[in-house]
Amino acid sequence: MPLSGRKRKAGPLAVLRIVHRFAMAHAQPDYATLIRQQGFRVTSQRRLILEALRQCGGHVSPEAIYLCVREKAAAVNRATIYRNLDFLCQMRLVVAAQVNGHRLYEIAGAAPHHHLICRLCGQMIDLPHRQVEAFCATIARQEHFSVELEHLVLSGLCPKCQRAALTKENDKHMIP
């Protein structure tokens, strides 16, 4: 869904560059200024959602955001949370990830970051962007496609769960 019909001064990539420059100079970007610079209003709901994301830290479910926001503004409903999360993602101030079938959100960092998530135990391993850059460059070169990647989540099995799965498979083949 596109952002509202308001005229924007710059695109989402420009916002990402501004966030990066701001983060290099300050500990916490001024999200209200970034939103206003794009020609949008800074609503109390948007402020509360960003505050909830900062307060919770890491990957947060919409339900957890909703509960946190409801403590300060009882009139806010779930539809408002989802609508504003979509807006903040389109602005690239917030990133979303599918983790074990659940959509989770977090504040966008100054640099792209990625995760490996074990689908059995849920362990989350940070994956540096430099490990993903070569993959993006290959796609760009072979497909003539400009990759815009800020947040990647790959699911699979961690070493511990791989060993457990292998042991379980071997046990099935043993003769009693």
* Lateral arrangement of strands in the main beta sheet: 4-3-5
Q: Which series of helices and strands comes N to C?
A: HHHHHEEEEHEH
- Counting helices, strands and paired strands, the structural category is alpha+beta
Q: Any idea of the CATH class of the largest domain?
A: Mainly Alpha
The first-to-last residue Cα distance is 58 Å
Radius of gyration: 20 Å
Beta-strand proportion: 15-25%
The CATH H-level homologous superfamily of the largest domain:
Winged helix-like DNA-binding domain superfamily/Winged helix DNA-binding domain
Q: If helices are DSSP runs of H or I spanning 4 or more residues, what is the number of helices?
A: 7
What helical percentage do the residues reach? 40-55%
The average pLDDT is: 82
The gross shape turns out to be flat
Spans of 5+ residues with little confidence (pLDDT < 50)? Answer: 1-27
- As for the CATH topology of the largest domain, it is Arc Repressor Mutant, subunit A
CATH architecture assignment of the largest domain: Orthogonal Bundle
State the major sheet. Answer: 3 strands, mixed
- Strand element count: 5
Q: How many separate domains make up the residues?
A: 2
Describe the structure.
The protein is of the alpha+beta class. It folds into two domains: 1-110, Winged helix-like DNA-binding domain superfamily/Winged helix DNA-binding domain (Arc Repressor Mutant, subunit A, Orthogonal Bundle), CATH 1.10.10; 112-176, Ferric-uptake regulator, C-terminal dimerisarion domain (Dna Ligase, domain 1). It is built from seven helices and five strands. The chain has a three-stranded mixed beta sheet. Mean pLDDT is 82; it is low at 1-27.
